[in-house]
Amino acid sequence: SVAVLGTVSSASAAIVTWNCNLVIPATNEGMYINIVAQTFATDPTAVAGWDLNIYSATADPSSIIFGAMAMARSVTSFGDTTKNLAPGTVVSGSLDIGIAAGDVFDPLLASGWQLNATNYFGFELPLGGSAFGYGVMQVGATGADRTLLSLVYENSGAPITIPVPIPAPGAIALLGIAGTASGRRRRPA
């Protein structure tokens, strides 16, 4: 089935965010996604101009493959394998960009994808030039357990930076208390 989620998008300046929350099936078909139109389906004929296909050959974590097709190219740092990019990475034309066709959990490819973690990947869309963006993927206990949380891109052609998570205020306060407590020492009498 095809879903169009136009109401979940927000545009601020030239940054477009789609909080898609797509559970990716562990199938050869996977999920075909048109990033700009914000449409998706498990059937490629149901998503005109699809940009990204995320799929698995099996439920085994070593078989997860990202295939960025058609109008999108994945930003990579090793050959043609989509790499887990660190928060703070600037996605731009200066990164190695190629068609992704590799297993992201293969240790020989050094892609850095992590189980039970949030992972980030970059992409480029040719929107009257280049538009750079990133995807946020939550991966569970196996590589077959994954949810594409959001897709974000800068539609003006400018580079975009993957944000660095900010700790919650309570976590900062706890760190301060722990630091104060460890700094106190008993004085000899």
Structure description:
The protein has 189 residues and is mainly β. Helices cover 8% and strands 38% of the residues. Strand 13 and strand 14 form a beta hairpin.
Keywords summarizing the entry:
globular; 16 strands; mainly beta; 5-stranded antiparallel β-sheet; about 190 residues
The low-pLDDT segments are 1-13, 61-71
Structural class: mainly beta
Approximate helicity band: under 10%
Strand content: 35-45%
Tally of DSSP helical segments: 1
Topology as H/E string?
EEEEEEEEEEEEEEEEH
DSSP E strands, number: 16
Query: Judging from the principal axes of the Cα atoms, what is the shape?
Result: globular
CA(first)-CA(last) distance: 76 Å
* Major β-sheet profile: 9 strands, antiparallel
The radius of gyration over CA amounts to 19 Å
Mean pLDDT: 73
Write a short abstract of this structure.
Helices cover 8% and strands 38% of the residues. Strands 2, 3, 4, 9, 10, 12, 13, 14 and 15 form a 9-stranded antiparallel β-sheet that branches. It has 189 residues and is mainly beta.
How would you summarize the topology of this molecule?
Layout: E1 3-4, E2 9-12, E3 15-18, E4 22-23, E5 31-34, E6 39-41, E7 52-56, E8 64-68, E9 73-78, E10 81-82, E11 90-91, E12 96-98, E13 117-125, E14 131-139, E15 146-154, E16 160-161, H1 169-183
Antiparallel strand pairs: 1-6, 2-3, 3-15, 4-15, 5-6, 5-7, 7-8, 9-10, 9-12, 9-13, 11-16, 13-14, 14-15
